[in-house]
Prior knowledge:
The complex is a heterodimer of chains A (163) and B (434). Chain A is mainly alpha-helical. Helix content of chain A is 79%, strand content 0%. The radius of gyration of chain A is 20 Å and the shape is elongated. With 434 residues, chain B is mostly helical. Helix content of chain B is 77%, strand content 0%. In chain B, helix 6 packs antiparallel against helix 10, helix 15 packs across helix 17 (340-357) and helix 18 (362-374) packs antiparallel against helix 20 (398-421). At the A-B interface, helix 1, helix 2, helix 3 and helix 4 of A face helix 2, helix 3, helix 4, helix 13 and helix 14 of B.
Amino acid sequence: MDFLIKINKFLNKMLTLTGGALLVGMILLTCANILSRQVYGPIPGTFELMGYAGAVVTAFALGYTQFTNGHISVDVLVNAYPKPLKRFISIINHGVCCFFFFIASWYIVQKALTLKNANEISETLRIIYYPFIFAVALGCLILALALFTDFLKALLVQKGSVK
Amino acid sequence: MSLTLIGITGILMLLFILFVFGIPVGFAMGIVGFCGFSYVITLDAGFNMLASVTWDTFSSYGLTVIPLFIFMGQIAFYSGVNEKLYNAAFTWVGHIRGGIAMATVMACAAFAAICGSNAATAATMTTVALPQMNKYKYEPMLSTGAIACGSTLGVVIPPSVVLIIIGLSTEQSIAKLFYGGLGAGLLLAILLTLTVYVLCTIHPEWGPVGKKTTFKEKIKSLAGAVEMLILFMVVMLGLYFGLFTPTEAGAIGSFFAVVIALVQRKLSWNDFYNSIFDTLRISCMVIVIITGAMIFGRFLAITRIPFDIADWVVALPFSKITIMAIIFGIYIIGGAVMDALALLLITIPIFFPVAMELGYDPIWFGVTITIVTTLGAVTPPVGATTYVVGGMAKDVPLEKVFKGVAYFLPAYIICVILMMLFPKVVLFLPNLLN
Lengths: 163, 434
């Protein structure tokens, strides 16, 4: 369990740092584009690059947000449940969400592979963009891993309390 | 099963797993939307829709505005701008009865012009303003109520993530919504300040006068606070004159917020690092809810539920105003039990077509529901902002904080009534953009 938490922490930190660097890059690129537009003309493909970078920034923060309980939920009723029921609900929640994001990740990979096989390129820059889709799939997979860790946490705590 | 029945079942299922299971809002909308879509079309179509909508939403250029404005707010927060704004307001109006509470509301409004977070404003204002009000023996109900309600201005006065999301989900101009929010936010700020004045007129002992300051001190207090407000003006004027898109405005705002904080030597490496991490966490949370709403929206669209509801509501034997009042009532109740952002994303596909069918202006509707749902941030049982203030004001019982908030609620109601009677309050500035 500790090992899983450590892996989660490490992966999320790495991905969030990468996302942070990309965010700074997005700010600089946009400012450069505004400046360049006044002098030479817009930097080609800024919109595309911003979209792709934005996708990676969000995807790479998915696991970290889960890890820090950053996703909003309506817990008015859940907070009033007795502890055993709360744990049961937590197991169901994390199990279902983990499965959902694993499936989502799998089908996003399929989408990326389809684009790769079709040699699909972006409209303005004419570059391949399936690697960004793979990055989004990776983000979803890391989120599934974080949810799996929470699922195990809830499950093991319950076992412990039964003992 | 008819499509309408499937749609209604989907909405009920969503509410069930949201409330009974407490599944995060974005995940819940995604799961129900995916299951409903797959049930109506096919499982394969559901999988393809899931992958496509996730990628399309994550990579949308329009959504890149979200992390940029959040980052601008986080930099302002970590560099302590709100403390300076409060000090400036305190120096200017602190010497009049209830002046420190008024200064708190004004500082909240000014900080809202840079940062769109209620919780961040509430946390810092409690730290900065509450000790001052305690020092001058302000009634705790007045002091905590002013902080909690003043903090709600964060989502109304632009740049506001809630307004951005309303703009994106209803395909309305974000710049127009920002200007509409500015008018409504200023009106609400004035009404909250007036509430302090009225309360201190009825109970003079609630807000004793603070120390007098010289004109020189007043001017001096503006240093350090005006720079960020000038930045706000640059961002808003740039949008107004069409010099840049909302995303570019966010980037410019973020860039210069960092530059200003660095020049003032108010931003350490650690603060920068924390700003980045907080930005990623908050914007990821927001974009996940949007993605969930998009998936759920696809499901609702194939069931045609939003249009059926709009047709049904318009055919009801009630006046336009009554229907709108009922919608606002639903938003007030909904806002009391769930986060404003999530509530708006779930309900906009249903109520926006209704408002359009009734002939309301989309910008007016977007801004007004923002004010209405913002009430939920201070009312029980959720009332996140009130909890932040109550949690930090250790010597004030939570009931007293909620009681203090109750004194300010008429200001929100009057604000909404004025906006209904005089839509120009909201639409004057956006109409100038035409």
